[in-house]
Structures are given as C-alpha cells and as structure tokens.
Amino acid sequence: MAFSIERRQQDIKALKEGTLDVFIIGGGITGAGTALQASASGLKTGLVEMQDFAEGTSSRSTKLVHGGLRYLKNFDVEVVADTVQERAVVQGIAPHIPKADPMILPIYDEPGSTFSMFSLKIAMDLYDRLADVTGTKYANYTLTKEEVLKREPQLRSDGLLGAGVYLDYRNNDARLVIENIKRAATDGGHMVSQMKVVGILHDADDKVSGATVEDLLTGETFDIKARVVLNTTGPWSDTIRQMDTKVDAAPQMRPTKGVHLVVDNKRLSVPQPTYFDTGKNDGRMVFVIPREEKTYFGTTDTDYTGDFANPTVEQEDVDYLLEIVNNRYPSAKITIDDIEASWAGLRPLISANGGLDYNGAKNQPISDESFDKVINTIKQYQKGNVDRYTVEEALKNIEKDNSESEANPSAISRGSALDIDPDGLITVAGGKITDYRKMALGAMKAVIEILQNNFNLSYELIDSAKYPVSGGEIDPQEVEAETGKLAQMGIEKGLNESEALYLANLYGSNTPKVLALLDEIQQIEGLTLADSVSLCYAMKEEMALTPSDFLIRRTNHMLFMRDTLDSIIEPVITEMARYYGWTEEAKINYRKGLETAVAESDLKNLKGDGKK
Over the stretch 285-330, which tens digit does the pLDDT of each residue have? Predict the structure, then answer.
C-alpha cells in the first residue's frame, strides 16, 4: 500500500496488535536510516515521530553532506577519512539527493585564521587522497587573490591571500529522511508520524518492553510492545531516557542552536559554496551557499536550553551573521529587511568532549603548539632536512587540548554515542547527517545481538552501503544523464523543461510514478502543473499530513521559493482539506500553523509588523 493516510491507519492497527522486534523512537535521519536497515533485514519494525518526519534537527542543517576539511587542521585524519568515505556511500544509495558542488575557501591574513595558504594546500591534498579524487575533475586547486576576486568580486580584498577549492556536496536533508522512511515502509516497516511517546513499558523483569504512545491526530493513547526499544530522538535523547523509570540516566546532551538566513542572489551573489573564517577570531567558520536563485548563509553555534520543538532565530543571531557576511562582502550591505527566509535548528551534541563515537574514536582538538610543530616538521621534510619517520613521529605525538570544550560549543565533539541502559533501552545520539547510515548500522548490530542472545531470533543484516533509498535506483555515476532522461519524460507529459528537471531532481527514480499521476489528476487552480502533481504525490505517497509538511519538508517552497509562496498557500490548503476531508475548524488550525511557521521564517517579529 502507498505511504498514505490509509497506510497510517493500517500501521497503527499493526502496532497495537503485534510485538515488534525493534521499536524506534524518533523519525529524524538516524531513526529513518535505522528503520530502513531493520525493515530490509526482515525485522518486525516500528517507528514513531511526534512531529512530521525530519521536522526537528534533520530538516534544519546547513544542507550539505560535508566532508569535514576543517578537521584536518587538527590532523583528525581518521575522522575525515571516515566522513568522506561515508559521504561517497550516501551518494551511492541516494544519488538523486547529494550533488557534487565544489567549495571555495578564501584565506585572509588575520588573527585566528584556521588555515594559511600553505596549511590549506596540505589539508586539501590529504583530503583528496582520503576522498579518492586525486587526479579527477574534483581534485583540489588553489586560486590567487586576483583569481578569487574575479570569481567572487563582492569578496573583501583587504588581507585576502588567495583560496583553495575542494570537493563538497550539497544536500536536501528532509528529502534524505523521507526517502529512507519510504523505503522502510515499502519493506514492511510501520512508520507513523504525529505519534508521541508518553511512557516506557517494562516486563516482569524490569526490562524495556515497549512504550505508551499518544496519537496526536486523534488523541488516542495505546501501548506498543517490542523486544528492543531504540531511542534516536536527537536533542530529546535525555528526555526519553529520563522517562524510563527503571534507570537513573545522567544527562549527556548539550544541544547547540544553528541559524541560517536566506537572501535573494541579486543582493548577495556567489558562484559556488563558500566557506571562511568569521574574521572575529572566535574559532568559527561560516558558509555562504547559492541555491535556487537564492543565497543562504550560516551557521551560528550557541548553547541552547529553550523549547527543543521550536528553536527560533533571535536578534543576536541575525546581528552576528550579518556582521560577518557584510565584513566579507562589504558592498552587499545586507540588512534584516533583505532576509527572505530563515531557519533555526539544534545540533544534538554529546556534552563529554572526547566521548566515544560509533567507531569508538575520540575527537579532541590539538594544541596550537602541537599544530605548529607538525607544520614546521612538514616544511623541513619538504626541504629535505628531515626524513619521513620524523614526520610520522610528530603526528603520533600530537598533544590534545581540552581547554576549549567547556566555554566554546563549537569545540564539543561531533562524534556519536551508542549507550545501552541496564534495562535494555538503546540510545544513539550525536553525530552528523553524513554519518547517519553508519550510526544506524552500529545500532542495528546491537539490536540483532540482543535479539539473538535474549530471544533466540536470528537476522542477517543487509549490506546497507549498497541498498538504495526510495528514489535512489539510478546509476550514481550517471546522475546527470539519468536525471535528464527522467526530465524528458516530464516534458513529454506536458511540463516545461524547468518543471520537469525540478521534479526529476526531487524524486529521482520515483519520477515516473509521480508523472503517472498526471493522467489521473486535474491541474489544481492556483498551482502549476508541477506543483499540482507534487502535492498529490506528497499526500498519496509521502505522508504529508499538513500544509507545512508539504511546503517546508517535502519541498523547499518556504525556504528557497519565497517569491511564489504566498500565492500557493491557499490552493495547497484548499486541496489538502478536500483530499483529507478536514472540518472547517481543522482547516483553520492548519492554516494558523503554517502562518506561524512562515512568520517565524520571515522574521516578522524582528522586522516589525509593517514589514514582511
């Protein structure tokens, strides 16, 4: 059955009646990736998410599958190697989502610079070898100051030394989540959004045996029984663990808030993703990224203790980012009134710096003294004054520096943690979106071991590195060509080239299924043909239950198509109300929810009532 409201009702019935092998709490990227692996491996799998899938952290990232070049300043070779190799895996299983988009990193002569031109080139060469792109069209290269300014004439020239260009990937974070969820559902998993866990169940031996949940659409409360319960709730990880009355779990999360701002590319034009130091000597770097005729920039990184479900952009966030961007692009003179959209998200960081990640690795910054010693040793090696053994010894004897961790949230480990409480509750937390599949793999290995040892149930894990997400069944080496063929199918169905390419890039190998709906539906009044079929598909096949689900997470209308958003809101609400049979009261409530989300994105409160 299609992943629709009817499927939701069937899944709830199954969750009430049976006993799951694994019950996953949290429908962000980690939960979604785990559900895919569990369902494909034959486990009886259930997942609940109290909001829409990806509504929390997993739709609020910088929207990159980032390679982590900056980690190489700390010579975290293992971390970067792991990241770039995993990035290649994600591109292979979801080739319609991450797209290669080389990054430019300008270098300025100023205090606190992350890289010099020399250390940047060393880092990029090592990065290329780790990413296996040396000698390819994606190999790194450097630019002179003049070449940088020719490419980005709005960049500040004072103190500019040059730049490096290296491979990175843009991403559609929310689409990556829903495509994992859809694949899990296709393989028999019971994936239910708008379902909140309100209690943890235990058996006679005080072992976790399921959870009590509340259906936020109907108000019904019921129990879900499971042999293993997995907590993948990101910033809410501590909340779920503290809900478990049989253990005394110490808090381990230190969420930080990241903010991004969107302007029209006519106000700030960059030809490619750009990444630079803030210029404030605060140890941070900022991205400026072109996307769909817009430019967005971020991110902030500040400790957060507010409402996890609704982090918002504050005046200080805007002031911080505008100061940095206007310093780097002095002719742009961006003001708050130029901001067309924004988003704020939480990073589920582990508070213990150097905590174990899913590979058992520890991540800590190195001291400045050790860094300088390594760089000087490499210089001597290049001059022939020392041998390779001397360089290797310098790398082995790097001193780690924990001094930043308490004061600076940017220094907190981005590693993940897998914990099994005494009563059996498994929690996977932390990490980065690039690592989601490996985090899920680590969790699944623990789940399968418990099922074998405690329940005498044997399962063999699929090879998730070769198992495509929904929409991912296209050749990762021929993405552009295959996307073009899919777009041509749309053109033959009556779409213009722009619309056809938009749908092909959004849905990948599911595009023919989307286009088939053109034979069944009429164009919705007030919507383009492409938006009409996209909305229909979102409701029939992607569990879009609210206007916000469609306009924010199934598509990027609110963030990157702000110019046309206002004109399509009412047609979207009207069609969803008709399809779902909403009462007038429900229709009003959904409209209010969307209006609130749009107002927050528009920064209406910060701009004042008279401004959009």
Answer: 999 999 999 999 999 989 998 999 999 999 999 999 999 999 999 9
94, 475 contact by CB (below 8 A): no
**Domain segments of the chain as ranges:** 5-58+174-253+415-466, 63-171+254-347, 479-607
**What is the dihedral sign for C-alpha 10, 231, 416, 37?**
negative
Rounded to an integer, what distance in angstroms lies between the CA atom of residue 274 and that of residue 286? Answer: 8
Poorest-pLDDT segment among 199-208, 262-271, 425-434, 565-574: 425-434
| Tokens found for residue 275 | 């990444």
Confidence of residue 548 (pLDDT cuts 50, 70, 90): very high
SS (H, E, C) 463-527: CHHHCCCCCCCCCCCCHHHHHHHHHHHHHHCCCCHHHHHHHHHHHHHHHHHHHHHHHCCCCCCCC
- Angle (CA) 418-29-511 rounded to 5° is 150
CB 550 within 8 Å of CB 538: yes
- Residue 63's region, left for phi above 0, alpha for psi from -120 to 50, else beta, is left
Strand partners, 143: 163
- Sequence-ordered list of residues with C-beta below 8 angstroms from that of 360, at least 6 positions apart, any chain: none
Query: If one looks up domain 63-171+254-347 in CATH, what number appears?
Result: 3.30.9.10
Work out the number of other CB atoms within 10 angstroms of the CB of residue 155.
23
Across 385-399, b (16+ Cβ under 10 Å) vs e yields ebeeeebeebeeebe
Q: What is the DSSP letter of 159?
A: T
**Residue carrying the six token digits 């049979």:** 581
pLDDT in tens, 20-76: 999 999 999 999 999 999 999 999 999 999 999 999 999 999 999 988 887 777 667
Distance, in Å, from the CA atom of 535 to the CA atom of 519, rounded to the nearest integer, reads 15
Q: Of how many residues is the chain composed? A: 612
Three-state DSSP class for residue 360:
coil
Task: Please state which CATH class domain 479-607 belongs to.
Answer: mainly alpha
Report the phi/psi class of residue 281: left, alpha or beta, with left for phi > 0 and alpha for psi in -120 to 50: left
pLDDT-derived band of residue 353, with 50, 70 and 90 as boundaries?
very low
CB 38 within 8 A of CB 447: yes
5-58+174-253+415-466 placed in CATH 3.50.50.60: yes
3-state secondary structure 229-277: EEECCHHHHHHHHHHCCCCCCCCCECCEEEEEEEEECCCCCCCCCEEEE
- Per DSSP, 158 falls in state T
